[in-house]
Design a protein that fits this description.
The protein is mainly alpha-helical. The protein has 2 domains: about 50 residues; about 190 residues, no CATH class. It is about 55% helix and about 10% strand. It is built from 9 helices and 5 strands. The strands form 2 sheets. A 3-stranded antiparallel beta sheet has the order 1-3-2, sandwiched between helices. A two-stranded antiparallel sheet has the order 4-5. A hairpin with a 7-residue loop joins strand 2 and strand 3. Helix 5 runs antiparallel to helix 6 and helix 6 crosses helix 8.
Length: about 240
Amino acid sequence: MTGREKIAARLRALRAKTVANGCTEEEALAAAEKLAEILALHNMTIDEAELRASPFGRHAERHTDEVGDRLWKVAQGVSVLTGARYWTSCAGAWPVEISFFGFAHEVEIATYLLEVCAGAMRREFKRLNGAYALLMPPARRRKILPFLDGMADRLRTRIIKLKPPAPMGTGLIVLHRSLIDAAMADAGLKTSPLRARPSRDHDASYADGLAAADAVALTAALSARSANGQLGQASSPSSAERGA
């Protein structure tokens, strides 16, 4: 435990000394005064103290269908929104693997949002397979794949737009990134840039996919999962990443 982590632990202990937790009013007041003194002395915030106590989490999942082959786009948007890092398997690798790493509450929200989007895309995929059942498989793919590209692209854009405004200053953002960097290093995790395949946006069904994505209730899903209102403020890399 570093010196700053010890200070953060002491601040959390002082913050817990309240009347509701069994302290007298005098004890709670003394703790609050000491808390303010230490915060000023070490130029620390309560947010930093709490962030340093947050556990880390990791999630990995595999996909073996056409929807899974496009979920990295959604995962990219989810990463920007939550602050959790993500990476995916190389283009052409099968099955497709998508991983998240970050603070546990961020990874939980990221995993849930990806599940919501994957479910919506698979429902559309099933519907289209039925609608084009009379077509030969190659012709059916030419109809469906651009639709899935459009849906994944629009979901990514919509998710990024849900990101709350960054707080004043950049200290907490820098700390957030550095703590995740250190945790990933400790876990032996490395990522590297991955070249992404462009979307099939020249086909008319691409626009249909955009419209289908607009009907997915992302805000309701996010509200249901992030009741504590904690979303990371640090942006992840703009390109997909591959586990090294």
